[in-house]
Amino acid sequence: MVLHNATVDPYSPERGYFECLDCGTRETSEGLISECADCGGEVRNIAVPRE
Fold first, then answer.
1. What pLDDT, on the 0 to 100 scale, is given for residue 45?
2. What predicted TM-score, i.e. pTM, was given to this entire model?
3. pLDDT score of 49
4. Does 5 fall in a domain?
5. Is 10 among the domain residues?
6. Burial class (CB within 10 angstroms; exposed 0-12, middle 13-18, buried 19+) of 40
7. Is 21 domain-assigned?
8. Residue 41 lies in a domain
9. What is the per-residue pLDDT for 11?
10. Which of 10, 11, 19, 42 counts the most CB atoms within 10 A of its CB?
11. pLDDT of residue 43
């Protein structure tokens, strides 16, 4: 099988999308966020990776 899509998708998000695991607050940031601004809970990056 020959793959013709040899070019890697150049998409790279300019902003991260984060969601608090405790209170569900969502926020965007150009940098990394380690805790929720509202409750201090743990956050995760919910940006969907593209293949």
1. 87
2. 0.64
3. 65
4. no
5. no
6. exposed
7. yes
8. yes
9. 53
10. 19
11. 94
**Position 5, amino acid:** N
**1-42 confidence digits (pLDDT tens):** 555 555 555 555 677 889 999 999 999 888 888 899 999 999
Q: How far is CA 32 from CA 1, 5, 9, 17, 22, in A?
A: 40, 31, 23, 10, 18
The DSSP symbol for 7 reads S
CA angle 18, 22, 28 (to 5 degrees): 15
Strand order in the sheet with 26-29: 26-29, 16-20, 43-45
Tally the domains of the chain.
1
- The per-residue pLDDT for 38 is 93
Residue 21 sits in which domain range? 16-45
- Rounded Cα distance between 37 and 29, Å, is 12
